[in-house]
Design brief:
7 strands, mainly alpha, single chain, five-stranded antiparallel beta sheet, disordered C terminus, 15 helices
Length: 392
């Protein structure tokens, strides 16, 4: 059994012991000691361990721990609001024991005094939102006396997306497990507060566009499908499709991707190959990702039949493709590009409205517009300040 499994087993045993024995009981203290030792061993092999508990799955960093699917403690922690945990360097046994006490209270349905009870764990053990920053450049202004918007740190997820693109570009391999884990982590970030957040990344350099855009489209696709009342499986499936919709761009030379001026006819032809390339990459690697392959192929098709790739026999695009198309265009318009500055959200929504019924599905545009306006105050922009440029 690998270290993550050993640690989680010890975590479950310590929580069970704390429920059975009072504070100071030898059996309880031994269980806490054993669990903390497993955590230290895990941290020696890989710094700052991170776990997510979502929809019956347990995720360690970017890996879904298949053997723990349906793990009872994972489900109980998620239900209690502990969907994600990050252990920073320097956690002590005292801090760990205090954190376990908090978990025990949460599992018992108690409400913690966040002003004091969390003071101990905020230094080296974080749960819920992985990392909270309240002075992010570019964040919406906060009204005097209002609670600042909590911003989750998506550095690990962005690095995972960059790595996925690199694996596809360099080795021709699509790491599906990691892609699914990223989508689950983004879903956790969206729900890490009492109200839903839209953790949309802000571009730092044009080289990072494909990575940033993939994350944002995945978040927006999950948000609109949840807003429309679709089930959790559909939401995650649309999230994966959004994450992979531009996968074909890994085959486009970097100088074309970041070109500041107009494309030549040859360059435009190269750019417009990415839907076909992306669909081919996905379907050749993972037959069960047929929906994501459809979306990759169709996300530049318009409602009136135009767009690219040109279809020999025009047909209606899949509903998921229509959803991702709206999310794709909105995020692209709201992002700085080499040839223009980012648009405001309202201007981008106006663009969608102008082309509703020709390029975009009118019902989706209406729902997406309502969602953005209702959730704009809960939108949490995140600077991509820890991500190195893509190297393909």
């Amino acid at each position: 059994m690998s270290d993550p499994y050993r640690y989680l087993t010890s975590l479950g045993q310590s929580l069970a012991a704390m429920a059975l024995y009072p504070g100071g009981h030898p059996a309880r203290e031994r269980a806490v000691d054993a669990s903390f030792e497993q955590l230290e061993e895990l941290a020696r092999s890989e710094a700052q361990p991170q776990f997510s508990f979502l929809d019956g799955e347990v995720i360690y960093r970017r890996q879904i721990l298949r053997e723990l699917t349906g793990w009872e403690w994972g489900k109980r922690l998620a239900t209690a609001g502990v969907q994600r945990v990050e252990f920073l360097d320097g956690a002590t046994r005292e801090e760990y024991a205090g954190w376990l006490e908090e978990l025990q209270q949460l599992l018992g349905g108690e409400t913690l005094d966040t002003a004091e009870a969390r003071q101990l764990v905020v230094r080296h053990i974080r749960y819920g939102a992985v990392e909270v920053r309240t002075e992010t450049s570019g964040s919406p202004a906060v009204e005097p006396g209002a609670e600042p918007v909590a911003v989750p740190d998506l550095g690990a997820e962005v690095e995972a997306i960059r790595w996925i693109h690199g694996e596809v570009a360099d080795l021709g391999h699509l790491p599906l497990v990691e892609a699914e884990a990223v989508v689950r982590s983004l879903a956790v970030a969206m729900h890490s507060q009492s109200e839903i957040r839209l953790p949309l990344l802000q571009l730092k350099t044009f080289d990072q566009y494909t990575t940033t855009h993939s994350s944002n489209v995945s978040v927006l696709a999950m948000a609109i499908t949840e807003y429309l009342g679709l089930g959790s499986l559909a939401i995650r499936t649309f999230g994966v499709a959004g994450l992979l919709h531009d996968l074909g761009k890994v085959r486009i030379p970097k100088e074309i991707l970041v070109k500041p001026g107009q494309f030549t006819d040859e360059e435009r032809a190269v750019m417009q190959r990415h839907p076909v390339d992306g669909a081919r990459i996905i379907i050749e690697q993972e037959a069960r990702l047929d929906l994501a392959a459809f979306v990759a192929y169709e996300h530049h098709l318009m409602l009136n039949g135009s767009g690219y790739p040109v279809l020999r026999y025009p047909r209606e695009a899949h509903y998921a493709s229509k959803v991702v198309h709206v999310c794709d265009v909105y995020d692209a318009l709201c992002t700085d590009r080499p040839y223009r500055a980012a648009w405001t959200s309202e201007r981008a929504l106006g663009y969608l409205a102008e082309r509703s019924g020709t390029e975009f599905d009118p019902e989706l545009v209406d729902a997406f517009t309502r969602m953005i306006r209702e959730w704009e105050q809960a939108r949490a922009p995140v600077e991509e300040n820890r991500v190195t440029p893509l190297q393909h």
